[in-house]
Amino acid sequence: MAIDIRKPIPLYRQIAEEIRGTILAGKVQVGSQISSQHELARQYGVSLITVKKALSELVHEGVLFSRAGRGTFVERPPAEFKPLKIQTLGIVLRDLASPFFSLIVQGIEANASRLGFSILVSSASNEQEKEDSQIRHFHSIGVGGLIIASMTHDARASEAVRNLHRWEFPYVMVSYLEDPDIYRVGTDHRAGAAMATRHLLDLGRRSIGYIDGEEGNPVGRQRSRGYGEALARSGLEPDPRFQFRLRQRGEWNDFQSGAEIGDQAWANRTLPEAFFVYNDLAALGLLQALLRHGVRVPEDVAIVGFDDIGQAQFATVPLTTVHQPTFEIGTKAVDVLVRRLAGEAAEAQTILMPSLVVRESCGAVSGTAGPQVESRRVP
Hints:
Layout: H1 11-24, H2 37-44, H3 48-61, E1 64-67, E2 71-74, H4 82-87, E3 88-93, H5 101-114, E4 118-123, H6 128-141, E5 145-148, H7 159-166, E6 171-173, E7 184-187, H8 189-202, E8 208-212, H9 218-233, E9 243-245, H10 254-267, E10 274-277, H11 280-292, E11 302-307, E12 320-323, H12 326-341, E13 349-352, E14 355-358, E15 375-377
Parallel strand pairs: 3-4, 3-5, 5-6, 7-13, 8-9, 8-10, 10-11, 11-12, 14-15
Antiparallel strand pairs: 1-2, 12-14
Helix pairs in contact: 1-3, 2-3, 5-12, 6-7, 8-9, 10-11
């Protein structure tokens, strides 16, 4: 038995996870007594208080039960709760108010309803510990499978997701991860960024800046690569004067961060001919700031965002953007879960191609999108 004090996960939660895994693997049967609190404290090398907290969490979940003076016993395996397991899927979102992930939920709900499943939705409110707790809770009450939009900026799966994977519990991620074995449905961010940059190049814009996600954002790294590759294919390099990064973490801070960058770029008195922006919220903030300073969009500076959230088409200058197929991401996530519930094989990675939505902010007129651009025009 081992725990890792270097992990950000509390020690009592690591112990609870290991006991869950032992029970789920069938190493301890229902009704069997587990080791005493003193024995567990010695085995794990932790205090008695830490062990009591771990066991208390498992008792609260209904996995264990205690008998005064007798010890602690296995109540049931963590995933054994048949009434829910048959008909219910759990969704763990980073933020219910997210304009991007709320669109994915629409696809999840539509397909789940069509297939006879109900859904339970929770929000982690951008708190990693809360997200992990919700994953454990849904697993403990016996939902059939989980769809997870993680808020972590680690490109690798969290320990809570890794545990689901080890236990072969049906789950699928709808947020970006680089683990090739983790079940995920998502978008080719690199290709989408290259598509947006090529479009601006095809419109004759040669000086193209990039506004990246905040430090450590793995999705931002992918979009930055696509942007750089598109420039390189045209014999260009990113101009350091026009490279910016969002200042704050959290989706709802992106608008303000984009506006701050717009103020900064205008104050420098040197602007690129165009900006490709990490996401739509930041692009809308940038757009507002530039217009406030008298910069004409798209005549002076063209702007292209990424995501195609609802607000993009209603901006003062409607925003050209890379459309992520959010509804299809949601429906395909349900398909993956249903196949796994049926014991059928499912591809670990389902990566969908984005498309370009051409609106006024890029300076294009009808029919001017270049032949290399996969695009669709929106009214």
